[in-house]
């Protein structure tokens, strides 16, 4: 493959925010694993997981399409394909993005049911419309509400097994909702100057890094505490081990961030939040697999 073709492939993949998509897909799998009931056939779980991943990818692409002007003003995002002008943010791209979302919703309906399809759509809608269009440039609550995108992924997975309104998947959805703000606010502390120059009201810009660090710690302690509660219902010891290991790590780095609200501590907390989510969701899946044998 030529260097030009390789660059084009990298640009196309980059607009879909695939790392976020992987986290969202893992949340859906966690929703399947933690919900009491018969787990669907493996191929159905795989198709639903891919559907949630594609829905997240469509929302990520819409975010970059809609924010090309904003991305140009920030050093961290100025080289994105739409922002740099390598891709033209026109109607053709919008049609492709919406088409991808439609495919994802149909796949979720085919693999599971209408509720799974609804939650798959709502996750993308919250990130694309509520967060990107409505709140991001208007309110520091943007990423708080945006956290619902991951919660809907958990509920999509739960809907494939049974009712998403059972206590364990609902608690996991709430934990993912609470996880998103401290995860993203840690990154926002690192990119404080970028957001300030672009006049984006992220919490560190509005309230300062020190206060943001305290809010991050409060969120972290609350979500870690809630992450233990599914053990009272369907979750077992492997789930608890993952929740404890990830929770202790995330809590410790959040405490360090309060003590030193610096960029170095913020990026450490950002990375710890990712590991916490992996350990929590990995424990959820391991717990379910252990129960199957």
Number of strands: 0
Mean pLDDT: 93
Count of helix runs = 15
- Structural class, judged by helices and strands? mainly alpha
Describe the largest sheet.
Answer: none
Strand content: under 5%
| Distance N to C terminus | 45 Å
Sequence of secondary-structure elements: HHHHHHHHHHHHHHH
Count of structural domains: 1
Shape: globular
Could you explain how this protein is built, in words?
- Helices cover 79% and strands 0% of the residues.
- The protein has 15 helices and no strands.
- With 293 residues, it is mostly helical.
What is the gist of this entry?
Helices cover 79% and strands 0% of the residues. The protein is mostly helical and 293 residues long. The protein has one domain (10-291).
List the helices and strands and how they pair.
Layout: H1 3-14, H2 18-34, H3 42-66, H4 68-72, H5 81-84, H6 91-111, H7 114-135, H8 142-146, H9 148-161, H10 167-190, H11 192-197, H12 203-207, H13 209-227, H14 237-259, H15 263-291
Helix pairs in contact: 2-3, 2-9, 2-10, 2-15, 3-6, 3-7, 3-9, 6-7, 7-9, 9-10, 10-13, 10-15, 13-14, 14-15
Question: Can you give keywords for this protein?
Answer:
293 residues, 15 helices, globular, mainly alpha
